């Protein structure tokens, strides 16, 4: 399998030095996803957990609803200059074939379509609509989740250049953490893990991301039936609109002991006596 880090020469200038040395970088390579031999999409990703990624991606796009919908997944032959397999083409066989060339994907925050159209599409396409209630999470437990996510970012420690996503129990126990050059890929990877572990709809889990909360990330959470999304940085306006519309609890600026709750606050419990582990 391809490496997740690579070494490149660079020149580092500081007030006291000017040196040239190798630097460790996160690998970014294309992954072509094929269905039945036909190209579906290409995403730039950090190699690793590709099977989880495609499961999460296809669930997010409404193409599959369970892991059993994928009969087989195999890497196609593809080599680099040294003749090594790049593992950058993954061909899937679905239990029920789909018309790949005419497939219409869910809109993203960069698509340019109006917010109402995007919200309606997610509402009508999700197989796991959120219902009122669900897990109650104590603020002290929620506040600790970003640090627990960060503790498991081994590739970020080496490169400083990856996003992370993690699925947690309401008591704060991390179940799956994935890293990727793309925040949407990191989320697809943890959702794919949950799908393969038969934990979708993930109505008892919390999704934490290391960056901002875009419409696309909220959409992925809604499609997987995840009731709560916490982000270290800011949400977008359309992300908040979708969270309100879907009944998802969206928390932004989750840093230290502060947080902003933008929707469905009833799932947040401010009990300071909370235990940190489920």
Automatic annotation (TrEMBL):
The active site is at 111 (cysteine persulfide intermediate). It is found in: Cytoplasm. Keywords: Cytoplasm, Molybdenum cofactor biosynthesis. Pfam families: FdhD-NarQ. Its main location: cytoplasm. NCBIfam families: fdhD_narQ (TIGR00129), PRK00724.1-2 (NF001943). HAMAP family: FdhD (MF_00187). PANTHER family: FORMATE DEHYDROGENASE, SULFUR CARRIER PROTEIN FDHD. This is Sulfur carrier protein FdhD. The lineage of its organism: Bacteria, Bacillati, Actinomycetota, Actinomycetes, Mycobacteriales. The gene is fdhD.
